[in-house]
DNA sequence: AAGCCCCGCAACCGCAGGGGA
DNA sequence: GTCCCCTGCGGTTGCGGGGCT
């Protein structure tokens, strides 16, 4: 692994942040492994990248999630599963880490989802390019936001159709269902985020199907 | 006031994929 | 074709703060 103990771990200090920001200003993003060499920062490349992508980048939106964002995430998660980067890419200003944390801490609880995900091809635990689909049981009685209520109903109904888990927990997504879900959601998505609609229109569902 | 517990979030880890040599 | 480096992804960990007893 990178570095052994030559690199520092843990929370970043303001000073470290400043060094990293200065580096990006001068050299641009990328080549993260060279940051330590060029700046003397005792952080590995991965750590630098993560810090920039998730916190320091000006495109990252800080602060709590809005109800609109929340609804969008719920819908996208229903459609895409735990593909946080895809979801985050469609929620402006949010990172995959933010979305993932928000889902795991707030939405799972809020939607009453038992935190148990299903992995396709369970025999290969870390080969997780495969789609994971959350437990399709959502308790609509757990006082969701008003905007989320209908979504939860859709999710409950939809995941029944979209996800057929076999005894081996393999997941099959019903393409017809997704297409109908998708078609019915155009208006919502247009309202939520024009760029979202554009992105997803261009997003090949092959990624979903073939990932299985 | 002090100790304990729980929760949220930042960061780490392990792995896969892509591209260049 | 293979190796190496870099980047990106998703799951997990662990620290810190706030609430509770």
UniProtKB/TrEMBL annotation:
Q: Which GO terms describe its biological process?
A: cell differentiation; plant epidermis development; regulation of DNA-templated transcription; system development
Task: Give a GO cellular-component term.
Answer: nucleus
* CDD domains, sorted: SANT
Q: Where in the cell is it found?
A: Nucleus
Which segments constitute the Myb-like domain?
4-56, 57-107
Domain annotation HTH myb-type: ranges: 8-60, 61-111
Main subcellular localization, coarse class? nucleus
Protein name per Swiss-Prot or TrEMBL: Uncharacterized protein
């Amino acid at each position: 692994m990178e570095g052994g103990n030559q690199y520092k771990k843990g929370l970043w200090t303001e000073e470290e942040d400043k060094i990293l920001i200065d580096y990006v200003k001068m050299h641009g993003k990328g080549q993260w492994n060279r940051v330590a060499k060029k700046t003397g920062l005792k952080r590995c490349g991965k750590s630098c990248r993560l810090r920039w992508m998730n916190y320091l980048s000006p495109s990252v939106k800080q602060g709590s999630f809005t109800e609109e964002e929340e609804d969008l995430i719920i819908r996208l998660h229903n459609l895409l599963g735990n593909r946080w980067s895809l979801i985050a890419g469609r929620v402006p200003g949010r990172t995959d880490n933010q979305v993932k944390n928000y889902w795991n801490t707030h939405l799972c609880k809020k939607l009453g989802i038992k935190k148990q995900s299903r992995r396709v091809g369970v025999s290969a635990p870390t080969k997780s390019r495969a789609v994971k689909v959350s437990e399709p049981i959502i308790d609509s009685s757990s006082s969701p936001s008003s905007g989320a209520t209908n979504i939860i109903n859709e999710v409950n109904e939809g995941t029944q159709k979209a996800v057929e888990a076999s005894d081996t927990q393999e997941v099959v997504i019903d393409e017809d269902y997704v297409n109908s879900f998708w078609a019915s959601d155009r208006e919502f998505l247009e309202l939520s985020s024009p760029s979202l609609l554009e992105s997803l229109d261009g997003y090949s569902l092959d990624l979903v199907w073939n990932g299985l």
